[in-house]
Design a protein that fits this description.
three-stranded antiparallel β-sheet; alpha+beta
Length: 97
């Protein structure tokens, strides 16, 4: 139950939800590109990405000076969870709920 509460708290932050959605829709996006996309400062975005990565909701992969962001594999339980969250977010944002 504690894990569910922790996940819900993490996803209650609008910026984290936006970052999760963006990484899901553009696997391999870099932190810099993600900062531009969401309009956030790099230190703030990186902190939120670390929170999501600590919960295994995102995978941060360093490559030289860049960090690429990937969602977990769909086969994992977290991947299926993220699919459902992103689908619900897209539906909500398009006004269908």
């Amino acid at each position: 139950m504690d894990l569910i509460i922790t996940l819900c708290r993490a996803l209650a932050n609008p910026l984290r939800l936006c970052l999760l959605r963006a990484a899901h829709l553009r696997p391999g996006i870099t932190v810099g590109d993600l900062c531009e996309q969401v309009g956030g400062a790099q230190p703030v975005v990186s902190k939120h990405l670390r929170t999501l990565a600590d919960l295994a909701l995102l995978d941060l992969r360093p490559s030289g000076r860049l960090v690429h962001i990937h969602p977990p594999p769909r086969e994992s339980g977290r991947g299926a969870l993220i699919d459902a969250i992103v689908d619900a977010t897209v539906t909500y944002l398009s006004g269908q709920i």
